[in-house]
Amino acid sequence: MSTKRKSYSVEYKKGIVEDSRGVNLVAFCKEKMLDLRMVRKLRADLDYLCQLVDQGNEKNRRVGSGRQPLFSELEACIWEWIAGRRTMAFVVRRADIQKFALETAIEFDISTEEFKASSHWLDNFLKRYELSLRRSTTLFKLEDNEVVKRALAFKLFVDGIDFSKYQLSNMIAMDETAVFLGQGAQTTVHHKASSSIYVPSTGYDSARVTCILAIRLDGKKVSPFLITKGKKDQIQRVSGIYVIESENAWCTQAVVRKWVGFMLPPLLRGKNRGLLVWDSAGTHRAKDMKNFLAERKIDQIMISAGMTGYLQAPDIAINKPFKDHLRMEINEYIENRMVRNHRGNFVKPGLQEVVNWVNSMTDSHIFFGNLVPV
Fold first, then answer.
1. What's this model's pTM, rounded to 2 decimal places?
2. What average pLDDT does the segment 218-231 reach?
3. pLDDT tops 60 at residue 314
4. CB neighbour list of residue 337: distance below 8 Å, 6 or more residues apart
5. Has residue 135 been placed in a domain?
């Protein structure tokens, strides 16, 4: 007889009771492969089963049926402890839960003989309270009511701006995005039975470039601004793409200043002013950056944290398709054109290769084809 628990409908249970009448119960259970004690219990509950069938609940399980947690009060206390730690953004590990459970069990007069906080108990506890191990997310998340609140506040702020003092060509929305040049995800579709899954490393997985993508409000393209790793402080033009180097290929404040000076040179006179729409990154919020922009008569509209996915046009319409298509180019290079050096190590794509990828995408109207003046 199978030891696995089975689920039976009320109608099926009533049928078992009716079929077992007038026959040898032991032989009946052996023939039907049923538990003798279960059948005896069903026969004792016949009136209740008939009542459920009459009420149309013949396919429902009895409310509250099934094995209940032995230490419900202890588990409720553990759940509150976990919720409190996560509210304060503390990490909660499986071992932490087991340790806290054993310490708290003493307060409930539960001995270690009764409760051992085993891995099996922990698995069931997490399942009962809909908990699981999660990887931290890099995106800042807001509750729905906070999103609405910030969106309305942003609209009120924008409604109060006098846009007549800006020419469309002097209003720019920008965003930075980093792209890693190595192998992408370390997950792949593979046969279930395989015990070893091999995804080769290129040897330069941490190599990256940062690209500043921007649009002018008159609908004209703004050439991508590529940031690579290096020490050259001058902007150079490679096949139509502007390239600058920084120590770690990040968009530092010095790089942002050069980009601003390049895109909005200090030639604004009279009532003409410039306007930048960007996110609230640290380089944008710095006091030195604000003074730098004020000296050049450039105002800024800053998208608050957690709202870029709703309000920032480059982040929504440009960055994601840009990174998706660049990832396709990188994968094609790794699979078909990547070469090894004299030591047998893979060689990462050169600057010209990356520039060609960026050019092929920006020229294909993938990112700017739907951006027109309003």
1. 0.59
2. 83
3. yes
4. none
5. no
